[in-house]
Amino acid sequence: MYFFGIGIHVFIAVFFAIHVIRSGQNMYWLAILFMFPLLGSLVYGIAIYLPSTRIQHGAKKVMSAAGKILDPNRELREAHAAFDYTPTAQNQMRLAAALLAADQAEDAAKNYETCLQGPFASDPAIRLGAARANFACQRYEACISHLRILKESAPNNAPEVVSVLMAKALAGAGHTDEARTEFEFALQKFGNFDTRAEYAIWAISRGDKETALKLKTDLDQTISRWNRHNRELNATMLARLTRAFP
């Protein structure tokens, strides 16, 4: 039993030693771990290992969410200040994203369009941002134009997001048949929760109860398996589904 205990201590020390090397920690931790495997492992686990795990990442997410609630315009203010001080393309991209997140779609679209005239004209993230901003402004044809360019120039860039947004833009522009085709493509190709939810919401709005209820049944089965964390992450979409299917 004594030797088994020593083996466990050494095993834990070796585990933490591997973490030291892989995470780029100071090498003196190796000496501590192997000279004092029990105490060294305990200290390293508390001081270094645990803070680098999901516990800390979860805490950071909570703090970030809390910060957005307490000061929702902080990122927008900082993005404005950064661009005013140094009007680079990178800072304008940051400003455009912050404007879109703050529901200032008109200004966001203008900034994205300006970015597309500069050295980052081929950046797919900027093109997608421009498409989203134009969609939010209900400029559906402009959104469709950006998305078609994206599909041709960067087909592997967030393809499911592009496809669903394309379907919604086509619907907004009145291209009903094309919208349905795009929704069906996205459903067969990706079939994730957001794709099914967006298709269901659109289908019920068009009076296609058969398609909508079939999708809603699948969605309900997925939602029933979620924990509270999943529900919180998808709260916005769940609220939209509740409004669409009262």
From TrEMBL:
InterPro entries: TPR-like_helical_dom_sf, UCP030959_TPR_rpt-cont
Entry keyword Membrane: yes
Transmembrane segments: 6-21, 28-50
Keywords: Membrane, Transmembrane, Transmembrane helix
Tagged with keyword Phosphoprotein: no
Protein name, UniProt field: Tetratricopeptide repeat protein
Protein's organism: Undibacterium jejuense
Taxonomic classification: Bacteria, Pseudomonadati, Pseudomonadota, Betaproteobacteria, Burkholderiales
